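Students often ask why we bother encoding 3D structure as a string. The short answer is that it lets us treat folding as translation between two languages. Here is a chain of 473 residues written in the first language.
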Amino acid sequence: MELWQLPVTEVAALIRDRKVSAVEAAESCLSRVEAVNPELNALADVRPEETLADARRADAAVAAGADLGPLHGVPTSTKINTPQRGALMTHGVTAMAGMRAARDDASVAALRSAGAVFLGRSNAPAFSVRWFSTNEPHGRTLNPWSAGHTPGGSSGGAASALAAGMTPLAQGNDIGGSIRFPAGCCGVVGVRPTVGLVSNWTAPEDTGPEPSLTVQAWAVQGPMARTVADARLALRAMAGADLRDPFGVPALPAAPAPGDRPIRVGVVRDVGIVKPHPAVDAAVDDAARWLADAGYEVEEIELPLLAEAARLWSLLLFEEMRPGLPGMLEMADEGLRVHMRYAYEYAAGLWGEKPDLAAYVQGWARRATLITRLQELLGTGMILLTPVSAEPPFEQDADIIEPERGRNLVAAQWPMTSLPVLGFPGVSVPAALADGLPIGVQLIGGRFAEDLVLDAAQAVEDRAPDFTAPLSA
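And here it is in the second language, the structure alphabet:
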């Protein structure tokens, strides 16, 4: 196999054992980028000279016998909305096309400290808002499985690059499915950690306007990779106590003892918002069967609080966005303008045209109750199995074709929008192929129970079919 085809764990081990060099790993991935990125447009800012210079420094550290981080020499992409020292941070907006970050945010700094070699910036929609990855300054990212279907958003460039073999590891962020949905669309693994586990701190000079309460309380940084083991390794490297983050943890929770795992899996496939597509239902069935085969006790459950959380997402997030919406849309492309119009129409059907302050305040109060109830359930050792979306990967621009379809897509994303409101960890893992497209499932655990969720994701991965995109075959 070529180096670009190898998982993170193998690349890191080969470099550590001096069987290959970091430069060789970087060159292999850069060659892959040169071969397939012109078609897919997944990476928006690739600077080979800087990547190779970083790789040479990584090799010098190996030669000097330095202490090596768990990702030493591993080529990694970062997202265009995340500060990386000296790199473009365009947010997919023409008005910001020349912006460069002054320093790393905490998640990028953690990857750098772990030894990652940064290879490029992954594409995303304008302001990382849509579940599609297209924008004016960088263009459209394609799904390696099907050019006519979304690679997901907003971390669609990261997922596309992973699936096509450009990098074995990617950084993403998630406030409404932006890690988990692209992973599901492209047949890779995406981890949304518990809020606070991975620091979301960014230097004030790189944040622009101060982030809203929903961004502070819901947005997370997390890893995307081609295997569960790789995602687990990267998550451990990214996690860290950081009290600069308003929701950061003061200390990392202890990992569960070997052998500990939940014995129950609650399958939640329909919360009354929209019926799952038959292909999605079949993927959940497969994952449930595989988990049972692995020794889990699997049962179908009703969990209406997830529907309530998904509805709150459209209230709390959209109402906090409303004051700054005109300015944002003035800089946005037409696709984002149309998407937001349909999304606000969907929210109006739930909450009215202009929810008042009392509804907003009550929404935040209700959120706390839902968190408590879910932790009471999951804290007993249960995990949840849900779809990633109620639909298979959407056709390109499905959210802006016409109003009803645009509103329906927001409804279909209830598994993606409910979790950020509650702050629990979720992992998207590929489970099925339907009409040539990957379909993922989501596993959810109690707060800071990432290892338990990843154990279950590993059980699914071990039994699932091969998810090598046709472009990488």
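Translate back mentally: The first strand starts at residue 43 and ends at 45. Keep this in mind for the problem set.
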